[in-house]
Protein 1
Amino acid sequence: MSEIKDENLEEQEVKETIQEESEQPKEVVEEVDELTLAKQQIEEEQDKLIRLRADFENYKRRVQLDKAADYKYRAQSVLTDILPVLDNFERALAVETTSEEAASLVKGVDMVYRTLLEAVKKEGLEAIEAEGVAFDPNFHQAVMQEQDDSKESGVVLQELQKGYKLKDRVLRPSMVKVNE
Amino acid sequence: MSEIKDENLEEQEVKETIQEESEQPKEVVEEVDELTLAKQQIEEEQDKLIRLRADFENYKRRVQLDKAADYKYRAQSVLTDILPVLDNFERALAVETTSEEAASLVKGVDMVYRTLLEAVKKEGLEAIEAEGVAFDPNFHQAVMQEQDDSKESGVVLQELQKGYKLKDRVLRPSMVKVNE
């Protein structure tokens, strides 16, 4: 007989040996065999349970992460739609007034603007720093270049449109003029 | 022997009977017994698996429902903070102007207001109907009463502060004056 044999063959052989030696009726041997199978099945069922538990735990962990991300950026869509409102406010407030009536109106509008800024800030909206800082392609979009030797190369010379981020996520980059 | 005995006792007895009758060696009987136990254990493991699968499915279903609700009302906190901004806009726009400059400014403010209204409407914010409709405690808060015999009893006579809902959820009820 070859020295190399697989486990099943070995088992088969052991079973036959028992049968020959003990001369027990065939049914008992079958029951012993059934026990081996049953034990295998127990192990299989336990393995399935372990795997399913692991899947469940992974799923729960993923759900928690998703939920946290959804929560963090929950206001993103409405804030994105509000950016043009902030732009319009800035434009309206930049108007030069000639009468007291108009000046008082602009003052009122400025208060409304501040209330809105407060509300969106509370939700995590922040204006991106631009003028005077080093150009950063993650936050700034260069739409013009100029050469100003009195300032460092690569610095933002002027902000043409304000950029905004929601927490660590850029909603709209600042449109800027950069020093060559 | 007593007629009342627990299951374990009964089992024990059956095992002993088999041993006596068949006169097999003790080990084999033990193996047969082990098989019964193994089969029980298989059933138990399968039960555990079925229960865990059911738990997993329920969890997934709950997560989906939670996610849908979170998504539906995701803008609630920022919109709630924006309600005073809408109030301030209405107040600013109600001002009577005497000069052309002021009138033109108010026109600009009105445009900013409309942009903001558009943004929050897109997210599901709606003004609650009040004046002229029947008082509904789910949407209206009665802060004043008056008797106007020319109108139906229980009808909203005047809206003192606008109410808003986010989809089917009231963010702030309308403050109203009701007909007695």
Note: Chain A touches chain B through 57 residues (CB under 8 Å).
Protein 2
Amino acid sequence: MPEQTTGASRPTLEAVAARAGVSRATASRVVNGGVGVRAPLVDKVRQAVEELGYVPNHAARTLVTRRSGAVAVIIAEPEFRIFSDPFFEQQVRGISRELTAHDSQLVLLWVEGPGDHDRIARYLGGGHVDGTLAFSLHNDDELPALIARARIPTVFGGRSEAGQRLAVPYVDSDNRGGAREAVRHLVSLGRRHIAHIAGPRDLMAALDRVDGYHDVMMDADPALMSQGDFTEESGARAMAELLDRRPDLDAVFVANDLMASGALRTLRERGVRVPEDVAVVGFDDLASVVRSTDPALTTVHQDIEGTGRLMVKLLMRLLDGTGGPVPASVITPTALVRRASA
Amino acid sequence: MPEQTTGASRPTLEAVAARAGVSRATASRVVNGGVGVRAPLVDKVRQAVEELGYVPNHAARTLVTRRSGAVAVIIAEPEFRIFSDPFFEQQVRGISRELTAHDSQLVLLWVEGPGDHDRIARYLGGGHVDGTLAFSLHNDDELPALIARARIPTVFGGRSEAGQRLAVPYVDSDNRGGAREAVRHLVSLGRRHIAHIAGPRDLMAALDRVDGYHDVMMDADPALMSQGDFTEESGARAMAELLDRRPDLDAVFVANDLMASGALRTLRERGVRVPEDVAVVGFDDLASVVRSTDPALTTVHQDIEGTGRLMVKLLMRLLDGTGGPVPASVITPTALVRRASA
């Protein structure tokens, strides 16, 4: 491959087209993948590209337009969580569909641990993506600051301490309001000893749901609070702890559906009837989970796919500079969905 | 942001360091994310970057080194398949760990349909990744050719018609040998009417397993062959068809574990005992599937994570030009794992 030339002497696509004896449009198609161009023409253009040392890539274009046509989606969770929690699939699905509608290429990245941060920062600083969408950001994490420092248009999914400090726009569900509605529903059923299984302490979405619980259960016994990490297994464990501490509990609001599924398993194993003895409400309304629980799970619906789409729409406004100013945050409503478990 | 300058007048990192009054190393760290640099120095370097119009990105660097530090992993399946089949998680896990060991950033792409091809070709042609790993490539698909046309180092996961035609190195399991061993095991148990539930007709891995089945069952009744698409649901349906056509069947070799799980469900619903009435063997040995089936699934183990790691190792040899010539293909062995279902 010939040495790359730079600056004024860098050959243009027009020069390539002229040497190959094809139109600029044909040369462009070949340079961009060659789809739909007849093989002899592809060969001619390729030969011209090599002879002239044309840089047939977006790196050169990025220097001019600063556009790569790609958007990075960063999930601040390890790979096993991403593939096991349907929440992420739904969020990514919404983002993927909306990016496709904008002809942007989604590239998915995730974070096994802090050891990945430097590499991700280099990648984001490298001009390979036009923007970043990041979610599941944890409060004690340097990742949000690294992303913000890359100085490319960014939208966060979910409120985070760092995101607010760095003034990165975010989309979130009304976690606190949804939690409040869930607990009020349990109160309206006549339940009095209502427990809560909380999500990770470093995720604002989880903390907001704890706040919503306390909005209604102002004087709740701390023994009614239990801690999980949003995995099914942690929900099963937290439920066991609660039953050991407060065997008189008659309801539990669980901070996500996966943990609620684990909690239902523990209740079944202990011979506790749902909802007769203990009513259970989850959060998320993940079709694949609420369909498979027994009894069917009453839960707080949030529009996960819609949140993903909204993140893309805000990002596109940042990228295009059209559609008016981007709000600091957009909060989407939640709604209680009543099924058999409460 | 100032206009980008190009060519000879493009400011260097050294110029940025000089103006900021810091070392080149410090300037480099700031430009690459700023990790571990004190805030006042970060600010000084940023100011110098803006004043000089320095292009703080890999796009410029790519023109020189042609390295982005990133590798694209392309799964030629829609997002719902990727998130629902643990096979992909394991493959991606192996790739992710090995890329991390090489300090390469994994960016995951997938393909909802042919409408995505042009965009992916543009992205790959754009110099944003140093190499490509692609798997689940279908025979009737133009994607392998598009990937090969991007002319960046590429390794395929799994044999494919296009990959062989284009001479792209690939890593694959011994699908045919594994299938043969599975069917021979059923024969050794005294089973005579051994059916096969095949995977997608356009995937060589599935076709190779059909060939392995026929290596042993040379005169098999075509009514003993049934077609699935590697999803659990398709396995359940295919099993029902087989039972309707050949109620006397006494064994079934299923081309992957997910379909085997579906087949076991159908057998249970029809009151057919496994393995007493019908013995079942799967393919993959996916921990999350074989653990949850009842009875536990006898299956053909393939080292999915190891295959992913191997793909990265071959790619790194292509990228570095070290480690000797890259073989056209590497076939990894399979092994029958006997559990209760056969």
Note: Chain A has three domains: 7-56, 70-172+305-332, 175-303.
